[in-house]
Amino acid sequence: MTRQPFPLAHLVPPDLRPYLLDFHWDVAVLHRLDLPTTRVPLADLAPHLDLPFWLYDGRPFQVTPHQVAADPLRYHEQYQRTMAADLDHPLDVVRRTDGRLTVLDGVHRLLRAELAGRVVVAVRILPWEELDAIAVGG
Protein backbone atom coordinates (compact mmCIF):
# COMPACT_ATOMS: atom_id res chain seq x y z
CA MET A 1 0.00 0.00 0.00
CA THR A 2 1.16 3.49 -0.79
CA ARG A 3 0.60 5.66 2.27
CA GLN A 4 -0.34 9.33 2.04
CA PRO A 5 2.25 11.47 3.82
CA PHE A 6 1.24 13.11 7.09
CA PRO A 7 -0.45 16.33 5.96
CA LEU A 8 1.15 18.60 8.59
CA ALA A 9 4.63 17.08 8.46
CA HIS A 10 6.24 20.42 7.61
CA LEU A 11 4.88 21.90 10.88
CA VAL A 12 5.93 19.13 13.27
CA PRO A 13 8.55 20.26 15.81
CA PRO A 14 11.70 18.09 15.93
CA ASP A 15 11.00 16.78 19.46
CA LEU A 16 7.59 15.51 18.35
CA ARG A 17 8.75 13.67 15.20
CA PRO A 18 9.71 10.43 17.01
CA TYR A 19 6.15 10.19 18.34
CA LEU A 20 4.04 10.92 15.26
CA LEU A 21 3.50 8.59 12.36
CA ASP A 22 4.90 9.94 9.11
CA PHE A 23 1.78 9.06 7.15
CA HIS A 24 -1.90 9.99 7.17
CA TRP A 25 -4.05 7.51 9.09
CA ASP A 26 -7.72 7.15 9.95
CA VAL A 27 -8.76 7.32 13.62
CA ALA A 28 -12.24 5.93 12.84
CA VAL A 29 -10.66 2.83 11.30
CA LEU A 30 -8.39 2.51 14.34
CA HIS A 31 -11.40 2.61 16.67
CA ARG A 32 -13.10 -0.18 14.69
CA LEU A 33 -10.16 -2.57 15.00
CA ASP A 34 -10.69 -5.50 17.32
CA LEU A 35 -7.69 -5.04 19.60
CA PRO A 36 -7.38 -6.48 23.09
CA THR A 37 -7.28 -4.09 26.03
CA THR A 38 -4.46 -4.27 28.53
CA ARG A 39 -3.15 -2.04 31.29
CA VAL A 40 0.22 -0.29 31.33
CA PRO A 41 1.87 1.98 33.88
CA LEU A 42 0.99 5.60 33.18
CA ALA A 43 4.69 6.36 33.61
CA ASP A 44 5.40 4.39 30.41
CA LEU A 45 3.38 6.98 28.46
CA ALA A 46 4.13 10.07 30.57
CA PRO A 47 6.74 11.52 28.15
CA HIS A 48 3.82 12.29 25.81
CA LEU A 49 2.58 14.85 28.33
CA ASP A 50 5.63 17.07 27.75
CA LEU A 51 5.30 17.19 23.97
CA PRO A 52 3.49 19.92 21.99
CA PHE A 53 0.71 17.79 20.55
CA TRP A 54 -2.08 20.32 20.86
CA LEU A 55 -3.48 23.23 18.96
CA TYR A 56 -3.39 26.70 20.46
CA ASP A 57 -4.45 29.99 18.95
CA GLY A 58 -5.39 28.24 15.70
CA ARG A 59 -1.94 26.71 15.21
CA PRO A 60 -1.07 23.01 15.62
CA PHE A 61 1.74 21.70 17.81
CA GLN A 62 1.84 24.70 20.14
CA VAL A 63 1.12 23.43 23.65
CA THR A 64 1.93 20.40 25.78
CA PRO A 65 -0.60 18.62 27.98
CA HIS A 66 1.39 19.60 31.07
CA GLN A 67 1.23 23.27 30.03
CA VAL A 68 -2.55 22.91 29.77
CA ALA A 69 -2.71 21.38 33.25
CA ALA A 70 -0.53 24.14 34.67
CA ASP A 71 -2.61 26.97 33.15
CA PRO A 72 -6.19 25.76 32.56
CA LEU A 73 -7.55 29.30 32.17
CA ARG A 74 -5.19 30.19 29.34
CA TYR A 75 -5.68 26.83 27.59
CA HIS A 76 -9.34 26.44 28.53
CA GLU A 77 -10.42 24.61 25.35
CA GLN A 78 -7.83 21.86 25.74
CA TYR A 79 -8.44 21.73 29.49
CA GLN A 80 -12.19 21.29 28.95
CA ARG A 81 -11.51 18.47 26.48
CA THR A 82 -9.21 16.88 29.02
CA MET A 83 -11.71 17.06 31.86
CA ALA A 84 -14.44 15.64 29.61
CA ALA A 85 -12.25 12.72 28.51
CA ASP A 86 -13.83 9.33 29.17
CA LEU A 87 -11.40 7.22 31.18
CA ASP A 88 -13.55 4.15 30.57
CA HIS A 89 -12.37 4.22 26.94
CA PRO A 90 -8.83 2.84 26.51
CA LEU A 91 -6.07 4.79 24.81
CA ASP A 92 -5.01 3.55 21.38
CA VAL A 93 -1.26 3.08 21.09
CA VAL A 94 1.20 1.48 18.71
CA ARG A 95 4.15 -0.61 19.83
CA ARG A 96 7.16 0.52 17.83
CA THR A 97 9.88 -1.84 16.67
CA ASP A 98 12.10 -0.62 19.55
CA GLY A 99 9.38 -1.57 22.06
CA ARG A 100 8.23 1.99 22.84
CA LEU A 101 4.53 2.67 23.05
CA THR A 102 3.31 5.73 21.17
CA VAL A 103 -0.16 7.16 21.72
CA LEU A 104 -2.17 7.30 18.51
CA ASP A 105 -5.42 8.45 20.12
CA GLY A 106 -6.00 9.41 23.73
CA VAL A 107 -3.56 12.08 24.88
CA HIS A 108 -6.43 13.98 26.54
CA ARG A 109 -7.39 10.75 28.36
CA LEU A 110 -3.77 10.25 29.37
CA LEU A 111 -3.62 13.70 30.95
CA ARG A 112 -7.02 13.17 32.58
CA ALA A 113 -5.76 9.90 34.07
CA GLU A 114 -2.67 11.64 35.45
CA LEU A 115 -4.77 14.45 36.94
CA ALA A 116 -7.02 11.83 38.53
CA GLY A 117 -4.00 10.20 40.18
CA ARG A 118 -4.12 6.98 38.21
CA VAL A 119 -0.93 4.94 38.04
CA VAL A 120 -2.08 2.60 35.27
CA VAL A 121 -4.11 3.22 32.12
CA ALA A 122 -6.08 0.94 29.84
CA VAL A 123 -4.67 0.73 26.32
CA ARG A 124 -5.34 -1.07 23.06
CA ILE A 125 -2.03 -1.88 21.41
CA LEU A 126 -1.73 -1.91 17.64
CA PRO A 127 1.35 -3.88 16.57
CA TRP A 128 3.76 -1.91 14.35
CA GLU A 129 3.43 -4.54 11.63
CA GLU A 130 -0.31 -3.79 11.34
CA LEU A 131 -0.07 -0.03 10.66
CA ASP A 132 -1.29 -0.50 7.10
CA ALA A 133 -4.70 -1.33 8.61
CA ILE A 134 -5.15 2.35 9.56
CA ALA A 135 -3.19 3.99 6.74
CA VAL A 136 -4.92 6.22 4.23
CA GLY A 137 -3.78 5.13 0.78
CA GLY A 138 -2.24 7.48 -1.70
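Next protein, fold it too.
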Amino acid sequence: MNWSGFYKLDWPERIEKLRVAGLLDDQQVAYMQAHYDAIGDQQVENYLYNFGVPTGILTDILIDGHHYTVPMTTEEPSVIAAANNGARMMNTGTGVQTNFPERLVRGQIVVTDLENPTVFIDDVKEQTQAILKLANDAYPSMLARGAGAKKLEFESLDATTVAVDLLVDPSEAMGANVVNTMAEAVAKSFSQRGYHVLMGILSNYATEAVISAKVAIPVDQLKTKQGQAGLSVAKAIAQASQIENLSPYRAVTANKGIMNGVEAVVLASGNDTRAINASMHAYASAHGQYRGLANWQLDSENTQLIGQISFPIMVGVVGGSIGIVPAVKINQALMDNPTAKQLSAIVAGVALAQNLAALRALVSTGIQAGHMSLQAKSLALQVGAELDEVPKLVDALQTADQMNQQTAKALLDQIRNEKDK
Protein backbone atom coordinates (compact mmCIF):
# COMPACT_ATOMS: atom_id res chain seq x y z
CA MET A 1 0.00 0.00 0.00
CA ASN A 2 1.29 3.46 -0.89
CA TRP A 3 1.03 5.70 2.19
CA SER A 4 2.47 8.78 0.48
CA GLY A 5 0.31 11.85 1.14
CA PHE A 6 -2.04 9.99 3.49
CA TYR A 7 -1.88 12.86 5.96
CA LYS A 8 -3.17 15.22 3.29
CA LEU A 9 -6.40 13.28 2.79
CA ASP A 10 -9.57 14.41 4.46
CA TRP A 11 -11.31 11.99 6.82
CA PRO A 12 -13.65 10.23 4.33
CA GLU A 13 -10.75 9.75 1.93
CA ARG A 14 -8.60 8.18 4.65
CA ILE A 15 -11.31 5.68 5.55
CA GLU A 16 -12.00 4.83 1.92
CA LYS A 17 -8.31 4.28 1.20
CA LEU A 18 -8.11 1.81 4.08
CA ARG A 19 -11.28 0.04 2.93
CA VAL A 20 -10.11 -0.29 -0.67
CA ALA A 21 -6.77 -1.65 0.55
CA GLY A 22 -8.63 -4.42 2.37
CA LEU A 23 -7.63 -3.25 5.84
CA LEU A 24 -11.24 -2.53 6.86
CA ASP A 25 -14.52 -4.28 6.09
CA ASP A 26 -17.87 -2.52 5.74
CA GLN A 27 -18.86 -3.25 9.35
CA GLN A 28 -15.63 -1.72 10.65
CA VAL A 29 -16.10 1.33 8.42
CA ALA A 30 -19.60 1.75 9.82
CA TYR A 31 -18.20 1.59 13.37
CA MET A 32 -15.65 4.29 12.57
CA GLN A 33 -18.34 6.46 11.02
CA ALA A 34 -20.42 6.12 14.17
CA HIS A 35 -17.42 7.10 16.32
CA TYR A 36 -16.12 10.00 14.25
CA ASP A 37 -15.59 13.23 16.15
CA ALA A 38 -14.67 16.53 14.54
CA ILE A 39 -12.68 17.63 17.59
CA GLY A 40 -10.69 14.40 17.52
CA ASP A 41 -9.90 15.04 13.87
CA GLN A 42 -8.25 18.30 14.97
CA GLN A 43 -6.41 16.79 17.95
CA VAL A 44 -4.30 14.07 16.35
CA GLU A 45 -2.69 13.35 13.01
CA ASN A 46 -4.10 10.80 10.50
CA TYR A 47 -7.25 10.64 12.62
CA LEU A 48 -9.61 7.67 12.13
CA TYR A 49 -12.09 7.47 15.03
CA ASN A 50 -12.53 7.90 18.78
CA PHE A 51 -11.55 4.85 20.81
CA GLY A 52 -14.03 4.80 23.67
CA VAL A 53 -12.98 4.11 27.26
CA PRO A 54 -15.75 3.60 29.85
CA THR A 55 -16.19 6.31 32.47
CA GLY A 56 -17.79 5.70 35.85
CA ILE A 57 -17.76 7.56 39.16
CA LEU A 58 -16.40 7.29 42.62
CA THR A 59 -19.54 8.59 44.30
CA ASP A 60 -18.11 10.19 47.43
CA ILE A 61 -14.63 10.82 48.82
CA LEU A 62 -13.89 13.30 51.60
CA ILE A 63 -10.75 15.33 50.90
CA ASP A 64 -9.68 18.48 52.74
CA GLY A 65 -13.19 18.94 54.11
CA HIS A 66 -14.89 18.68 50.72
CA HIS A 67 -16.99 15.76 49.49
CA TYR A 68 -16.09 15.02 45.86
CA THR A 69 -17.75 12.94 43.19
CA VAL A 70 -14.92 11.75 40.96
CA PRO A 71 -15.21 10.52 37.35
CA MET A 72 -12.82 7.67 36.54
CA THR A 73 -12.05 6.57 32.99
CA THR A 74 -10.75 3.02 32.73
CA GLU A 75 -11.29 -0.21 30.82
CA GLU A 76 -10.48 -2.47 33.79
CA PRO A 77 -13.26 -4.03 35.86
CA SER A 78 -13.08 -3.62 39.67
CA VAL A 79 -11.02 -0.41 39.66
CA ILE A 80 -13.97 1.91 40.27
CA ALA A 81 -15.59 -0.53 42.71
CA ALA A 82 -12.32 -0.69 44.69
CA ALA A 83 -12.02 3.10 44.76
CA ASN A 84 -15.54 3.40 46.14
CA ASN A 85 -14.83 0.71 48.71
CA GLY A 86 -11.61 2.38 49.85
CA ALA A 87 -13.21 5.82 49.98
CA ARG A 88 -16.09 4.50 52.08
CA MET A 89 -13.63 3.30 54.72
CA MET A 90 -11.73 6.60 54.61
CA ASN A 91 -14.77 8.89 54.82
CA THR A 92 -14.67 9.00 58.60
CA GLY A 93 -13.65 11.92 60.78
CA THR A 94 -11.79 14.46 58.66
CA GLY A 95 -11.23 12.08 55.74
CA VAL A 96 -8.12 12.63 53.62
CA GLN A 97 -5.96 15.65 54.42
CA THR A 98 -3.42 16.87 51.86
CA ASN A 99 -0.38 19.13 51.84
CA PHE A 100 0.90 20.72 48.62
CA PRO A 101 3.57 23.29 49.58
CA GLU A 102 4.66 24.27 46.07
CA ARG A 103 3.68 23.62 42.48
CA LEU A 104 6.41 24.40 39.97
CA VAL A 105 7.36 22.91 36.61
CA ARG A 106 11.00 22.47 35.63
CA GLY A 107 12.39 23.40 32.24
CA GLN A 108 15.93 22.37 31.31
CA ILE A 109 18.28 24.29 29.04
CA VAL A 110 21.20 21.95 28.38
CA VAL A 111 24.48 23.67 27.45
CA THR A 112 27.39 21.52 26.23
CA ASP A 113 31.08 21.90 25.26
CA LEU A 114 31.81 24.29 28.10
CA GLU A 115 35.50 24.94 28.76
CA ASN A 116 34.76 26.03 32.32
CA PRO A 117 31.28 25.10 33.63
CA THR A 118 31.89 26.97 36.90
CA VAL A 119 32.48 30.23 35.06
CA PHE A 120 29.36 29.63 32.97
CA ILE A 121 27.22 29.00 36.07
CA ASP A 122 28.57 32.11 37.80
CA ASP A 123 27.84 34.16 34.67
CA VAL A 124 24.26 32.90 34.46
CA LYS A 125 23.68 33.45 38.18
CA GLU A 126 24.62 37.11 37.78
CA GLN A 127 22.02 37.37 35.01
CA THR A 128 19.26 35.58 36.92
CA GLN A 129 16.74 38.41 36.97
CA ALA A 130 17.33 39.22 33.31
CA ILE A 131 16.87 35.55 32.37
CA LEU A 132 13.66 35.25 34.39
CA LYS A 133 12.36 38.40 32.69
CA LEU A 134 13.25 36.97 29.30
CA ALA A 135 11.35 33.79 30.12
CA ASN A 136 8.30 35.67 31.37
CA ASP A 137 8.33 37.96 28.33
CA ALA A 138 8.06 34.84 26.18
CA TYR A 139 4.73 33.97 27.87
CA PRO A 140 3.41 37.22 29.38
CA SER A 141 -0.06 35.90 30.23
CA MET A 142 1.46 33.77 33.01
CA LEU A 143 3.05 36.79 34.69
CA ALA A 144 -0.26 38.63 34.44
CA ARG A 145 -1.82 35.85 36.56
CA GLY A 146 0.87 36.19 39.20
CA ALA A 147 2.54 33.03 37.95
CA GLY A 148 5.45 32.51 35.52
CA ALA A 149 9.19 31.86 35.86
CA LYS A 150 10.29 32.05 39.50
CA LYS A 151 13.89 30.86 39.89
CA LEU A 152 16.91 29.13 38.36
CA GLU A 153 18.78 26.03 39.45
CA PHE A 154 21.89 24.39 38.00
CA GLU A 155 22.92 20.79 37.33
CA SER A 156 26.49 19.90 36.38
CA LEU A 157 25.88 16.84 34.22
CA ASP A 158 29.48 16.09 33.30
CA ALA A 159 32.81 17.90 32.92
CA THR A 160 31.58 20.06 30.03
CA THR A 161 27.79 20.02 30.33
CA VAL A 162 25.42 22.05 32.51
CA ALA A 163 21.63 22.10 32.66
CA VAL A 164 20.16 25.46 33.59
CA ASP A 165 16.82 24.60 35.19
CA LEU A 166 14.03 27.13 34.93
CA LEU A 167 11.33 26.68 37.60
CA VAL A 168 7.93 27.94 36.53
CA ASP A 169 4.57 28.41 38.24
CA PRO A 170 2.04 27.44 35.51
CA SER A 171 -1.03 28.77 37.35
CA GLU A 172 -4.00 26.46 36.60
CA ALA A 173 -2.36 24.75 33.61
CA MET A 174 -0.26 21.60 33.51
CA GLY A 175 2.46 23.82 32.10
CA ALA A 176 4.13 21.89 29.27
CA ASN A 177 3.54 24.49 26.57
CA VAL A 178 4.34 27.34 28.95
CA VAL A 179 7.66 25.86 30.07
CA ASN A 180 8.72 24.73 26.60
CA THR A 181 8.11 28.22 25.23
CA MET A 182 10.11 29.81 28.04
CA ALA A 183 12.93 27.25 27.87
CA GLU A 184 13.34 27.76 24.13
CA ALA A 185 13.45 31.53 24.59
CA VAL A 186 16.23 31.21 27.18
CA ALA A 187 18.04 28.64 25.02
CA LYS A 188 17.99 31.05 22.09
CA SER A 189 19.50 33.81 24.21
CA PHE A 190 22.32 31.49 25.33
CA SER A 191 23.01 30.56 21.71
CA GLN A 192 23.18 34.22 20.76
CA ARG A 193 25.83 34.69 23.45
CA GLY A 194 27.99 32.01 21.82
CA TYR A 195 27.16 29.00 23.98
CA HIS A 196 26.41 25.60 22.43
CA VAL A 197 22.84 24.74 23.44
CA LEU A 198 21.75 21.15 22.92
CA MET A 199 18.08 21.59 23.87
CA GLY A 200 15.51 23.51 25.85
CA ILE A 201 12.65 21.33 27.13
CA LEU A 202 10.46 20.70 30.17
CA SER A 203 10.99 17.84 32.62
CA ASN A 204 8.00 15.72 33.58
CA TYR A 205 9.70 14.73 36.84
CA ALA A 206 7.78 17.19 39.01
CA THR A 207 9.90 17.18 42.16
CA GLU A 208 8.81 20.76 42.90
CA ALA A 209 5.18 19.66 42.90
CA VAL A 210 5.05 16.85 45.46
CA ILE A 211 1.70 16.33 47.14
CA SER A 212 1.27 14.43 50.40
CA ALA A 213 -1.98 12.92 51.62
CA LYS A 214 -2.83 11.37 54.97
CA VAL A 215 -5.85 9.58 56.41
CA ALA A 216 -6.69 8.06 59.80
CA ILE A 217 -9.19 5.19 59.75
CA PRO A 218 -10.78 3.70 62.90
CA VAL A 219 -9.88 0.02 62.84
CA ASP A 220 -13.55 -0.97 63.22
CA GLN A 221 -14.12 0.35 59.69
CA LEU A 222 -11.87 -2.43 58.37
CA LYS A 223 -13.75 -5.48 59.65
CA THR A 224 -14.94 -7.89 56.99
CA LYS A 225 -18.31 -9.45 56.24
CA GLN A 226 -16.67 -12.82 56.81
CA GLY A 227 -16.14 -11.91 60.49
CA GLN A 228 -12.49 -10.88 60.51
CA ALA A 229 -12.01 -8.22 63.20
CA GLY A 230 -10.96 -4.73 62.17
CA LEU A 231 -7.81 -4.72 64.29
CA SER A 232 -6.68 -8.00 62.75
CA VAL A 233 -7.19 -6.58 59.25
CA ALA A 234 -5.40 -3.35 60.18
CA LYS A 235 -2.36 -5.23 61.47
CA ALA A 236 -2.21 -7.31 58.31
CA ILE A 237 -2.51 -4.21 56.11
CA ALA A 238 0.39 -2.59 57.96
CA GLN A 239 2.50 -5.72 57.46
CA ALA A 240 1.60 -5.93 53.79
CA SER A 241 2.46 -2.26 53.36
CA GLN A 242 5.92 -2.91 54.82
CA ILE A 243 6.49 -5.65 52.24
CA GLU A 244 6.02 -3.01 49.53
CA ASN A 245 9.13 -1.28 50.91
CA LEU A 246 11.14 -4.49 51.05
CA SER A 247 10.40 -6.20 47.75
CA PRO A 248 10.53 -4.32 44.41
CA TYR A 249 8.48 -7.15 42.90
CA ARG A 250 5.65 -6.48 45.34
CA ALA A 251 6.14 -2.71 45.07
CA VAL A 252 5.64 -2.69 41.30
CA THR A 253 2.33 -4.51 41.62
CA ALA A 254 1.22 -2.30 44.51
CA ASN A 255 2.04 0.86 42.57
CA LYS A 256 0.31 -0.51 39.49
CA GLY A 257 -2.79 -0.82 41.65
CA ILE A 258 -2.39 2.76 42.81
CA MET A 259 -2.01 3.85 39.19
CA ASN A 260 -5.30 2.10 38.36
CA GLY A 261 -7.02 4.92 40.23
CA VAL A 262 -4.55 7.71 39.48
CA GLU A 263 -4.58 7.18 35.73
CA ALA A 264 -8.37 6.81 35.65
CA VAL A 265 -8.82 10.25 37.25
CA VAL A 266 -6.02 11.87 35.26
CA LEU A 267 -7.43 10.56 31.98
CA ALA A 268 -10.97 11.61 32.88
CA SER A 269 -9.71 15.13 33.66
CA GLY A 270 -8.02 15.45 30.25
CA ASN A 271 -4.47 15.34 31.61
CA ASP A 272 -1.35 13.46 30.53
CA THR A 273 -1.35 9.96 32.02
CA ARG A 274 2.11 9.15 30.61
CA ALA A 275 3.74 12.14 32.31
CA ILE A 276 2.16 11.33 35.67
CA ASN A 277 3.08 7.67 35.35
CA ALA A 278 6.74 8.31 34.52
CA SER A 279 7.11 10.87 37.30
CA MET A 280 5.53 8.69 39.99
CA HIS A 281 7.59 5.64 39.12
CA ALA A 282 10.79 7.71 39.14
CA TYR A 283 9.81 9.00 42.58
CA ALA A 284 9.23 5.44 43.79
CA SER A 285 12.91 4.79 42.99
CA ALA A 286 14.26 7.99 44.55
CA HIS A 287 15.83 6.19 47.53
CA GLY A 288 17.86 3.79 45.39
CA GLN A 289 15.34 0.92 45.45
CA TYR A 290 11.91 0.85 43.91
CA ARG A 291 9.34 1.07 46.72
CA GLY A 292 5.63 1.29 47.24
CA LEU A 293 4.31 4.84 47.15
CA ALA A 294 1.84 4.41 50.01
CA ASN A 295 2.48 3.51 53.64
CA TRP A 296 0.07 2.17 56.27
CA GLN A 297 0.78 1.89 60.02
CA LEU A 298 -1.23 1.44 63.20
CA ASP A 299 -1.19 4.27 65.70
CA SER A 300 0.33 3.77 69.15
CA GLU A 301 -3.05 2.84 70.71
CA ASN A 302 -3.94 0.36 67.94
CA THR A 303 -7.21 2.21 67.37
CA GLN A 304 -6.52 3.80 63.99
CA LEU A 305 -4.83 2.75 60.77
CA ILE A 306 -2.80 5.69 59.41
CA GLY A 307 -2.26 5.89 55.67
CA GLN A 308 0.15 8.24 53.92
CA ILE A 309 1.26 8.79 50.36
CA SER A 310 3.50 11.33 48.62
CA PHE A 311 4.25 11.71 44.94
CA PRO A 312 4.98 14.36 42.32
CA ILE A 313 1.99 15.51 40.29
CA MET A 314 1.46 18.16 37.68
CA VAL A 315 -2.11 18.32 36.38
CA GLY A 316 -4.07 21.25 35.06
CA VAL A 317 -7.66 22.35 34.65
CA VAL A 318 -7.06 24.62 31.64
CA GLY A 319 -4.92 24.45 28.52
CA GLY A 320 -4.16 21.76 25.97
CA SER A 321 -7.17 19.61 25.10
CA ILE A 322 -8.86 20.25 28.44
CA GLY A 323 -10.91 23.18 27.22
CA ILE A 324 -12.08 21.66 23.94
CA VAL A 325 -13.14 18.10 24.79
CA PRO A 326 -16.81 17.98 25.89
CA ALA A 327 -16.27 14.87 28.04
CA VAL A 328 -13.59 16.66 30.05
CA LYS A 329 -15.93 19.57 30.70
CA ILE A 330 -18.57 17.12 31.95
CA ASN A 331 -16.03 15.47 34.24
CA GLN A 332 -14.87 18.81 35.62
CA ALA A 333 -18.48 19.67 36.42
CA LEU A 334 -18.92 16.32 38.22
CA MET A 335 -15.93 17.25 40.40
CA ASP A 336 -17.43 20.69 41.08
CA ASN A 337 -14.89 22.38 38.78
CA PRO A 338 -11.78 21.98 40.96
CA THR A 339 -8.67 24.14 40.81
CA ALA A 340 -5.41 22.49 39.75
CA LYS A 341 -4.43 22.03 43.40
CA GLN A 342 -7.82 20.56 44.28
CA LEU A 343 -7.59 18.16 41.34
CA SER A 344 -4.15 17.11 42.58
CA ALA A 345 -5.64 16.45 46.02
CA ILE A 346 -8.42 14.38 44.46
CA VAL A 347 -5.84 12.23 42.65
CA ALA A 348 -3.92 11.73 45.90
CA GLY A 349 -7.07 10.76 47.78
CA VAL A 350 -8.05 8.24 45.12
CA ALA A 351 -4.52 6.81 45.21
CA LEU A 352 -4.91 6.09 48.94
CA ALA A 353 -8.39 4.65 48.46
CA GLN A 354 -7.20 2.34 45.71
CA ASN A 355 -4.25 1.05 47.74
CA LEU A 356 -6.35 0.57 50.88
CA ALA A 357 -9.00 -1.45 49.06
CA ALA A 358 -6.39 -3.65 47.41
CA LEU A 359 -4.47 -4.34 50.62
CA ARG A 360 -7.62 -5.07 52.62
CA ALA A 361 -8.76 -7.57 49.99
CA LEU A 362 -5.31 -9.18 49.79
CA VAL A 363 -5.06 -9.82 53.54
CA SER A 364 -8.67 -10.95 54.02
CA THR A 365 -10.79 -12.53 51.27
CA GLY A 366 -8.10 -12.44 48.58
CA ILE A 367 -7.94 -10.22 45.53
CA GLN A 368 -9.73 -12.59 43.16
CA ALA A 369 -13.07 -12.80 44.97
CA GLY A 370 -14.21 -9.31 44.07
CA HIS A 371 -12.09 -8.96 40.96
CA MET A 372 -13.39 -12.08 39.22
CA SER A 373 -17.03 -11.29 39.93
CA LEU A 374 -16.57 -8.13 37.88
CA GLN A 375 -14.38 -9.87 35.31
CA ALA A 376 -17.27 -12.22 34.70
CA LYS A 377 -19.19 -9.36 33.07
CA SER A 378 -16.37 -8.79 30.60
CA LEU A 379 -16.16 -12.51 29.89
CA ALA A 380 -19.90 -12.67 29.25
CA LEU A 381 -19.65 -9.91 26.66
CA GLN A 382 -16.58 -11.51 25.06
CA VAL A 383 -18.52 -14.70 24.26
CA GLY A 384 -21.39 -12.75 22.69
CA ALA A 385 -23.98 -12.55 25.46
CA GLU A 386 -26.77 -10.09 24.78
CA LEU A 387 -27.30 -7.41 27.42
CA ASP A 388 -30.35 -9.19 28.86
CA GLU A 389 -28.34 -12.44 29.07
CA VAL A 390 -25.36 -10.95 30.91
CA PRO A 391 -26.78 -11.06 34.50
CA LYS A 392 -27.74 -14.75 34.22
CA LEU A 393 -24.41 -15.69 32.66
CA VAL A 394 -22.47 -13.76 35.32
CA ASP A 395 -24.35 -15.58 38.08
CA ALA A 396 -23.67 -18.93 36.42
CA LEU A 397 -19.97 -18.17 35.93
CA GLN A 398 -19.51 -17.29 39.60
CA THR A 399 -20.70 -20.74 40.67
CA ALA A 400 -18.88 -22.63 37.93
CA ASP A 401 -15.73 -24.64 38.62
CA GLN A 402 -13.78 -22.60 36.08
CA MET A 403 -14.15 -19.08 34.71
CA ASN A 404 -12.93 -19.06 31.12
CA GLN A 405 -14.27 -18.59 27.60
CA GLN A 406 -15.01 -22.28 27.06
CA THR A 407 -17.10 -22.42 30.22
CA ALA A 408 -18.80 -19.12 29.40
CA LYS A 409 -19.78 -20.32 25.92
CA ALA A 410 -21.19 -23.56 27.27
CA LEU A 411 -23.19 -21.75 29.95
CA LEU A 412 -24.47 -19.21 27.44
CA ASP A 413 -25.67 -22.02 25.16
CA GLN A 414 -27.41 -23.61 28.15
CA ILE A 415 -29.14 -20.32 29.05
CA ARG A 416 -30.33 -19.90 25.46
CA ASN A 417 -31.56 -23.45 25.21
CA GLU A 418 -33.59 -23.06 28.38
CA LYS A 419 -35.03 -19.79 27.06
CA ASP A 420 -36.14 -21.46 23.81
CA LYS A 421 -38.04 -24.23 25.60
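About the second fold: The chain has a mean pLDDT of 94.
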